[in-house]
Amino acid sequence: MRLILLGAPGAGKGTQANFIKEKYNIPQISTGDMLRAAIKAGTEMGLAAKKVMDAGGLVSDDIIIGLVKDRLKECDCENGYLFDGFPRTIAQADAMKEAGVAVDYVLEIDVPDDMIVERMSGRRSHPGSGRVYHVKFNPPKVEGKDDVTGEELVQRDDDKVETVQKRLDVYHNQTEVLLAYYNNWAQTGQPGAPKYRRISGVGPVEEIRDAAFAALSE
């Protein structure tokens, strides 16, 4: 199972990625994790990335694709792999294709913007323990207070409406084009073209998980 997971921030990709990883016994490939590991290990790609980052620049797609190819040679990728949060742009998708990185499925988790804003902006957390609540879906016993300690809950900056909206704007402007990119490629039926599947990310987590498994077995 070689898979790319697509969807807006807050669509529940991380939750579903965990179910998929477990079912198919595959690793989740995160470019951030790969960068950190390559820099720590002092690999050629890692040193090249560190040089760019130390100078305050953005790591080029060439370096990222090099890291991806190195990572996919590791033994835990024998059964496949799952990309979440990569590729983010058409240039990265093209680079992956040119590098011959095989993909069996592209799975899109679709959630309307207003629902994502409600999901994320309603989160409240207890800084001391990391316990997370939601004003609507998982409220504390006493409004604004942690169930265990009674201390004040806070809304993280990441979960504020304006921050969520900004992240969604970036997604729509930069990453959403990948939906059409992969959908169109899938429809060509060319050798090496992935299958494209879209599921709804609205509803109970288990229902979404079952829909994802069903989509990946078609």
Structure write-up:
Keywords: ATP-binding, Cytoplasm, Kinase, Nucleotide biosynthesis, Nucleotide-binding, Transferase. Pfam families: ADK, ADK_lid. Monomer. InterPro entries: Adenyl_kin_sub (IPR006259), Adenylat/UMP-CMP_kin (IPR000850), Adenylat_kinase_CS (IPR033690), Adenylate_kinase_lid-dom (IPR007862), P-loop_NTPase (IPR027417). The protein has a single domain, classed as 3-Layer(aba) Sandwich (Rossmann fold), CATH 3.40.50. Helix 1 packs across helix 9, helix 2 packs across helix 4 and helix 3 packs antiparallel against helix 4. It has a 5-stranded parallel sheet, sandwiched between helices. The protein has 9 helices and 7 strands. With 218 residues, the chain is of the alpha/beta class.
Give me a quick take on this structure.
This protein has 218 residues and is α/β, with parallel strands linked by helices. It has nine helices and seven strands, in the order βαβαααβαβαββααβα. The longest helix has 15 residues, at 161-175.
**Count of helical regions:** 9
CATH topology call: Rossmann fold
- Measured between the Cα atoms of the first and last residue, the distance is 12 Å
Tell me, briefly, the overall form: globular
The multimeric state of the shown protein is: single chain
The count of strands amounts to 7
Tell me the helix content: 40-55%
Known CATH architecture: 3-Layer(aba) Sandwich
Protein name: Adenylate kinase
Subcellular location: Cytoplasm
Enzyme class: transferase
Binding site for ATP: 10-15, 123, 132-133, 203
Topology, please?
Layout: E1 2-6, H1 13-24, E2 28-29, H2 31-41, H3 44-54, H4 61-72, E3 81-84, H5 90-98, E4 105-110, H6 113-121, E5 123-125, E6 132-134, H7 161-175, H8 177-188, E7 195-200, H9 205-215
Parallel strand pairs: 1-3, 1-4, 2-3, 4-7
Antiparallel strand pairs: 5-6
